[in-house]
């Protein structure tokens, strides 16, 4: 494991589907000697590219799960986190972006900046990830790197500066001119492994000189030394120029552009040089954790292997040897045999095997020091967990896990699927704290719950693919809630004294709206309800909460105060007071003007400005309240509050009305009362379904 | 009831205008101050005063992102409610949100045709019909042409528009007391207010129109909450 942290790179490769990300990764692994043969993405040879380790990914030619792999180049250790290029797998993306320090943005020389490139670029911008651009597929007919560079500027708002110019294009792509060192590079050998350096062809001399002028101009903005050298017309050493480019790249003021064709084995090695020379090492990036003992205040971590451990589990995988946990160590060192604590549940864990992963193969190592990425075996944890040294109380992510807002019933098709489904659910609920599942006794269905329609769809798909669990799904259901809006009194007597052992209990008090989900207050004085029955009263009230009397949705935001009651020396019992409390709840509830609340999502649509109007129109049609529109040059983002019930199918509609150029993110914001008309519709729907059941 | 309480107690009415609308449709108002004195806070109070009377306010910011502007509103609103000792303001806050629309631009990307396009987007689809506009953060370096165009727009759409104008220390005022930023364009404005730190307080001084002309007592911003008191 590399001791010098300056020589470590944790990078992601982000791209539009089909821009050749997986091929590029494959070539990188080949040139860094991690693999010895090259496979194609769609598996003509039945093996498939190495990074796409999940079957679903191989089949679709896309990458869903972020496998991490490492390789070495020019004495640098590079950890590659294969980031999903699809907008719908947001949790995966967010976690991947969390652990990487820099990225390569792969663009297709023919297709240019497509909508998906916009998506991944937005994500990188959000996380302030410095990046290099690689214009791939320069060998394809219609390849036009200059156009892509222009698009990088216009569509993504980057400041792209090419570090290379192609020698020939399309079928005539021969090599590249490196305009930092001013030399021509040709890639010889069966797999382009031998780089031949030559003089720049005469026909490209002028173009190369102009490109270098542009490069010097752009890099001098951040370097006084370089500016002086230019003004004094001195020779500019490559090192000086590269250090200025690196500084500008780290500050995201400049995007160095590389080019080539991964498939034709051209331009990959210079790109790797670019990664080692221009992208940040772990200590260049400031990482922060939250101090749990101090109201989640922000603490800056030091990339120091000697300090107490802080590490982040960003991905789980079920392997042939049990659960594999991908982990990034931010501070300290996780060594074989050491003890670490899972901050979420406070459990101490002894580290058994420590490994370095190469897609789905692995190599045992002794320790993972700060700044590195590795994998642990047999650690019981969930994705997103933070591990620390005993005594520390830091977390890399907020401990707040929002309650699910949408549910879907799933029914396995056969017995085998049933077994596989429960295995899958067990895994997924561990991987993702926002994904939950339970069994509904009334309908005999398994219900999965999550944060959005796509969130659940992805898991249903993964169930089929990874676990071979065929399930049929019901319609997505919004997690409505009931609550009361005014104070109401109750005074209920539960009395059954007609033969046999009797039941008697009277419970009186009031209920009122509250901020918390449920509060029970006992203000009974003088023993009108004997102390031993108070707990039974509370239980009786609590039993009413999961299924509200109005429409059967869970009841929240109620404060129940009991202040009087009565008991019978012989006939009172826990059962009787529970029943009395239930009666009291119903009595109070009917007077407390109950209403239905629905989950409201914070929706942010990012769209090119020309579609701002239509995107706002779409949100408005969906009972959305637009908070504002933010103009960000070529793109703009619209923030709105929209009821989840109205968001079904939104991604399709948004794509079709913006030529696929807009994307949106959605997160739970709050619960709000549904308007009268919607409430009436819900009542109608519920009564119809009751009739149907009857 | 809550709403009425807040309107009645709003000290902005002390700005000395008999009608609810301090600015008539199609006219300009300005709040001038140095950085950090409370321009945005005062503009937000003016906006909230309109919103509480069910007027739709379009807040355009050239400085801050939507989220920050939104926070300004929430902060000022909660402070007002706290001072007035009002409870149960959450529902009222919800209704306020429906009367407010935030639009942000990058300074270099702001232009009148663009604003017009955005306004058409909002009104043509029935999303939002502004009745007052706040423009915060517009640079007043060479404002004549831009302001003339905005004036035409404000007359077209019958909108009163408030601007925040950043002044600088040690600037030499014109003979009529106006800072250089508004010299040459002051005719376009019906009201010009200046926030001037005086000891611990911030004085709201009317350079044109407003309370002093009407003979009202001086208004101050509380430096802690930046609310008018």
What are its keywords?
heterodimer, A: about 700 residues, alpha+beta, Rossmann fold, Elongation Factor Tu (Ef-tu), domain 3, Alpha-Beta Plaits, 5 domains, eight-stranded antiparallel beta sheet, seven-stranded mixed beta sheet, 16 helices, 38 strands, about 35% strand, elongated, B: about 230 residues, alpha/beta, eight-stranded mixed beta sheet, 7 helices, 8 strands, about 35% helix, about 20% strand
Describe the structure.
The complex is a heterodimer of chains A (694) and B (229). An eight-stranded antiparallel β-sheet of chain A has the order 18-17-23-14-15-22-19-20. Chain A has five domains: 5-174 and 254-284, Rossmann fold (3-Layer(aba) Sandwich); 287-395, Translation factors (Elongation Factor Tu (Ef-tu), domain 3); 406-478, Elongation Factor G (Translational Gtpase), domain 3 (Alpha-Beta Plaits, 2-Layer Sandwich), CATH 3.30.70; 486-592, Ribosomal Protein S5, domain 2, CATH 3.30.230.10; 600-677, Alpha-Beta Plaits (2-Layer Sandwich), CATH 3.30.70. In chain A, α6 crosses α7 (224-231), α6 (205-220) crosses α8 and α10 crosses α11 (453-467). Chain A is built from 16 helices and 38 strands. The longest helix of chain A has 18 residues, at 574-591. The radius of gyration of chain A is 30 Å and the shape is elongated. In chain A, a hairpin with a 4-residue loop joins β26 and β27. By secondary structure, chain A is α+β, with helices and mostly antiparallel strands. Chain B has 229 residues and is α/β, with parallel strands linked by helices. Chain B has a single domain (2-221), classed as Rossmann fold, CATH 3.40.50.300. Chain B contains seven helices and eight strands. Chain B has an eight-stranded mixed β-sheet. Chain B is globular. The mean pLDDT of chain B is 81. The chains are: A alpha+beta (694), B alpha/beta (229). At the A-B interface, α14, β36 and β37 of A face α3, α4, β3 and α5 of B. β36 of chain A pairs parallel with β3 of chain B.
């Amino acid at each position: 494991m590399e001791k010098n942290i300056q020589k470590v790179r944790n990078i992601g490769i982000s791209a539009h589907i089909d821009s050749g990300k997986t091929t590029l990764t494959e070539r990188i692994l080949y040139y860094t000697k991690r693999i010895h043969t090259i496979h194609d993405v769609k598996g003509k040879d039945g093996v498939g590219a190495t990074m796409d380790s999940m079957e679903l990914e191989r089949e679709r030619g896309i990458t869903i799960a972020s496998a991490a792999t490492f390789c070495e180049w020019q004495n640098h250790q590079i950890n590659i986190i294969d980031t999903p290029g699809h907008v719908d797998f947001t949790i995966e993306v967010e976690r991947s972006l969390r652990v990487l320090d820099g990225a390569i943005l792969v663009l297709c020389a023919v297709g240019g900046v497509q909508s998906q490139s916009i998506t991944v670029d937005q994500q990188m911008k959000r996380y302030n990830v410095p990046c290099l651009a690689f214009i791939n597929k320069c060998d394809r007919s219609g390849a036009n790197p200059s156009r892509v560079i222009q698009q990088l500027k216009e569509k993504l708002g980057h400041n792209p500066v090419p570090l290379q110019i192609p020698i020939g294009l399309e079928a005539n792509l021969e090599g590249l001119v490196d305009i930092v060192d001013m030399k021509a590079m040709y890639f010889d050998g069966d797999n382009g492994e031998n780089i031949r350096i030559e003089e720049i062809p005469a026909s490209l001399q002028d173009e190369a000189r102009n490109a270098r002028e542009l490069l010097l101009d752009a890099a001098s903005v951040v370097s006084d030394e370089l500016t002086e050298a230019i003004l004094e017309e001195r020779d500019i050493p490559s090192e000086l120029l590269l250090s200025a480019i690196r500084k500008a790249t780290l500050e995201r003021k400049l995007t160095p552009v590389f080019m080539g064709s991964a498939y034709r084995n051209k331009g990959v090695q210079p790109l790797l040089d670019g990664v080692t020379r221009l992208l940040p090492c772990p200590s260049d990036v400031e990482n922060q954790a939250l101090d749990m003992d101090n109201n989640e205040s922000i603490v800056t971590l030091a990339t120091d292997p000697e300090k107490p451990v802080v590490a982040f589990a960003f991905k789980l995988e079920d392997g042939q040897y049990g659960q594999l946990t991908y982990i990034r160590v931010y501070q300290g060192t996780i060594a074989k045999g050491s003890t670490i604590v899972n901050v979420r549940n406070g459990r101490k864990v002894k580290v058994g095997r420590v490994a370095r992963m190469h897609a789905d193969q692995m190599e045992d190592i002794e320790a993972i020091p700060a700044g590195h990425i590795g994998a642990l075996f047999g650690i019981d944890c969930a994705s997103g967990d933070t591990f620390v040294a005993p005594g520390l109380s830091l977390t890399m992510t907020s401990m707040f896990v929002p309650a699910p807002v949408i549910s879907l019933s799933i029914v396995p098709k056969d017995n085998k699927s049933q077994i596989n489904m429960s295995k899958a659910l067990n895994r997924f609920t561990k991987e993702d704290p926002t994904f939950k599942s339970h069994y509904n006794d009334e309908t005999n269905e398994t219900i999965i719950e999550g944060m959005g329609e796509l969130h659940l769809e992805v898991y249903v798909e993964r169930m089929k693919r990874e676990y071979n669990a065929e399930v049929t799904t019901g319609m997505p259901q919004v997690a409505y809630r009931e609550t009361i809006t005014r104070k109401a009194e109750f005074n209920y007597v539960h009395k059954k004294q007609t033969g046999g052992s009797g039941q008697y209990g009277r419970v009186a008090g009031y209920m009122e709206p509250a901020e918390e989900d449920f509060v029970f207050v006992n203000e009974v004085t003088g023993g009108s309800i004997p102390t031993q029955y108070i707990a039974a009263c509370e239980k009786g009230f609590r039993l009413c909460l999961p299924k509200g009397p109005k429409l059967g949705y869970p009841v929240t935001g109620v404060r129940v105060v009991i202040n009087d009651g009565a008991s019978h020396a012989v006939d009172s019992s826990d059962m009787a007071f529970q029943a009395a409390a239930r009666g009291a709840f119903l009595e109070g509830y009917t007077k407390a003007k109950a209403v239905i609340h629905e989950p409201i999502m914070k929706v942010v649509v990012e769209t090119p400005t020309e579609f701002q109007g239509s995107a706002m129109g779409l949100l408005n049609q969906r009972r959305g309240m637009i908070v504002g529109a933010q103009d960000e040059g070529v793109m703009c983002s619209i923030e709105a509050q929209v009821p989840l019930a109205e968001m079904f199918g939104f991604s399709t509609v948004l794509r079709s009305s913006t030529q696929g150029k807009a994307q949106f993110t959605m997160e739970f914001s709050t619960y709000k009362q549904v308007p009268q008309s919607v409430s009436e519709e819900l009542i109608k729907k519920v009564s119809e379904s009751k009739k149907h059941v009857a | 009831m809550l709403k009425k309480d807040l309107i009645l107690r709003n000290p902005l009415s002390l700005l000395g205008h008999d009608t609810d609308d301090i600015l008539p449709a199609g006219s300009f108002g300005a709040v001038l101050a140095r950085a950090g004195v409370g321009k945005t806070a005062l503009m937000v109070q003016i906006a909230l005063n309109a919103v509480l009377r069910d007027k739709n306010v379009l807040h355009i910011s050239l400085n801050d992102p939507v989220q920050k502007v939104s926070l300004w509103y929430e902060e000022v609103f909660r402070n007002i409610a706290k001072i007035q000792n009002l409870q149960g303001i959450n529902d009222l806050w919800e209704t306020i949100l429906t009367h407010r629309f935030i639009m942000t631009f990058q300074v270099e990307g702001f232009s009148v045709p663009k604003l017009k396009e955005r306004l058409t987007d909002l009104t043509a689809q029935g999303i939002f019909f502004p009745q007052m506009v706040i423009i915060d953060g517009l640079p007043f370096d060479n404002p004549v042409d831009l302001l003339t165009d905005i004036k035409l727009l404000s007359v077209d759409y019958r909108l009163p528009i408030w601007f925040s104008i950043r002044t600088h220390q040690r600037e030499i005022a014109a003979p009529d007391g106006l800072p250089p930023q508004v010299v040459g364009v002051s005719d376009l404005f019906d009201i010009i207010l200046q926030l001037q730190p005086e000891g611990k307080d911030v004085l709201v001084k009317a350079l044109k129109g407003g309370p002093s002309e009407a003979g009202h007592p001086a208004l101050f911003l509380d430096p802690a909450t930046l609310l008018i008191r």
